[in-house]
Each structure stands twice: as structure tokens, then as C-alpha cells.
Write a structure and sequence with these properties.
The protein is built from 17 helices and six strands. The radius of gyration is 19 Å and the shape is globular. A hairpin with a 2-residue loop joins strand 1 and strand 2. Helices cover 44% and strands 9% of the residues. Helix 14 crosses helix 15. The protein has a single domain, classed as Rossmann fold (3-Layer(aba) Sandwich). It is α/β, with parallel strands linked by helices. One of its GO terms (molecular function) is sulfotransferase activity. InterPro entries: P-loop_NTPase (IPR027417), Sulfotransferase_dom (IPR000863). It comes from Patiria miniata (Bat star).
Length: 309
Amino acid sequence: MDKVIPADLYQKLLSQPLHFGYVEHEGIILYEEGDDVVKALKTFEVRDDDSWIVTYPKAGTTWVQEIMSCVMHDGKLEEVNKRHTAFRVPFIEFNLPKTIRQENKLPLTYQAVEQIPSPRVIKSHLPGQLLPPNIWDKSKVVYVIRNPKDVVVSYFYFLKLINPNDRSGQTFSEFFDEMMSGKILYGPWWDHYLSFWKMRHHPNVLLLRFEDLKRDLRGNVEKVSKFLGKDMPAETLDAITDHCTFANMKKNPMANPDSILADTAPREGSFMRKGKVGDWKSHFTVAQNEAMDALIRDKCYGTGLTFDQ
């Protein structure tokens, strides 16, 4: 994508204080111009060799997109480390604010993605119903589910990081209530999860769990590799696994989004914060935990979708 939107310009623009607008499409809150993007995706040309990483925000996107990028580069990590993950795996519905984009004559991201040569690895947080309709039968889709309690915590800190002007004064309790209402960027986590959970047996869909990645990263790297049609030797899978540990990604400027935001105005925290399982236990009150448990029972009853406590 950096051949369409130059990487140095993109990083320079991101170093400015940005003010993102939002729009609602079919009840889902999206970034500014998201309505136009979703409409365009209805006729977006999905290719047979596309690989998509789709998640609800903060469910493990950056982690798994790096695994997929390494796999699609056939484990050639020296090539992977030549370009930042943001350009190897474009975020198809995310655009710089409209005024900045137009001033610099930048295309919408999906338009840039259209010009990327195959094979493409594409990232999205869109719920299933807003993705290109032929995605399921033409390309590979990897979806990651994470315990929603940990998602709430990670999402809280993430929004403070990327949108400090709007979120700096928000308390965790206030954000918890916002998440419980479902009126949040990309909509309710439960609708998002369940739309993909129902697709889990589709041959072109691989559903992963964040917690399983933490327990057995090497096994899941191999699972992703086979799903994407790559038969790699053990030493290559070992190298990808080492490259994609949380500690190594966090210190790798080509894998950690913090390196793109390095020259920005002071922000709260880091894009790759902890990557832990169970961090919710140090944030939730007893009442919040009970409320979330009740919500999970209500929304997931009869679906077979459960979460480790």
C-alpha cells in the first residue's frame, strides 16, 4: 500500500493530532466515510488468493495479522521486516480524516487496496454483514475471538491512546457502561462474535481464540499456515513463532504500531499494552463482573459460544 500512499507521508500525517469523525451505518458506528466504504465493498473485487484477518477491536488483530503476513511471505522474515505491518496488511475501512486525505490527494484505503498486487493480506474490524458479500467463497478469512471481559479493558486503553482529545477524562466505569450498551465503535461485541461463530464450519473460515494463541502459539502458527495453503518446514514455523511472540513484536518497529505513532503528541500508554489473559480481574468490580456474566448468558445462550473465566 505504501506504493499508493507513501509510507513517509502516511507516518508524517499520523504524527499530527488527528480528530476522527464517526458515522452510523445500519446501526453500526464506523469511522468517518465508513458509510461510503461499506457501500463500495458491496462490489469490491475479492480475489481467490486474498487472506483476510477480521476481528472485533482488541481481540488480537495485530498479533494474528503479523502471523499471517509472515506465512504469506513464506517465512522470509528479512522481507517482512523491510515494511511496517500497517503497509503489509492494510486496514481496509480505516482512512485518515477526510480533510487531511483530500488536502494530500490520498485515496480511500479500499481504493489503495484495489491496486495492491496479489497475494494480499487485508485487515478489517467490520462485522460479517458489512464485508464484501463474496468474501466467504473466494478468499480465506481468519477470525479471532477473545474473552469480552479482556476486550473491554484493552479497548478502554486503546481508545484513550488513539483519541485522547475525546477519551482522556473517561473513567473505566463509564466505558464499561458504553460497552454494555453496544453503542460503541464497530457495534456490540456479541453481534460481531456470533456472526462469525455461525460461520466457524465454513471451509474458508478459520476461527481462533486469543487464549489458545497464548497457550500454544507454535501450534496456532502451524494451523494458520495450513489454512492459508502453506506447507512449511518445522524450522520456518519455529522462526515465525519466535518472531510473533508478544515480547518480540513489541520491540520490533516493523510489527508494533507504536513506531508509527512515535512522533505524535503525548499519548496515554502503548498500542501493544500487555497482551495478557485475565487482565480484566484487576479492573472489574464484582458488580461489573456479574453484569457481564449475565450479558454473556443472555446473548450467547444456545449458541455454544462460551468463554474461560
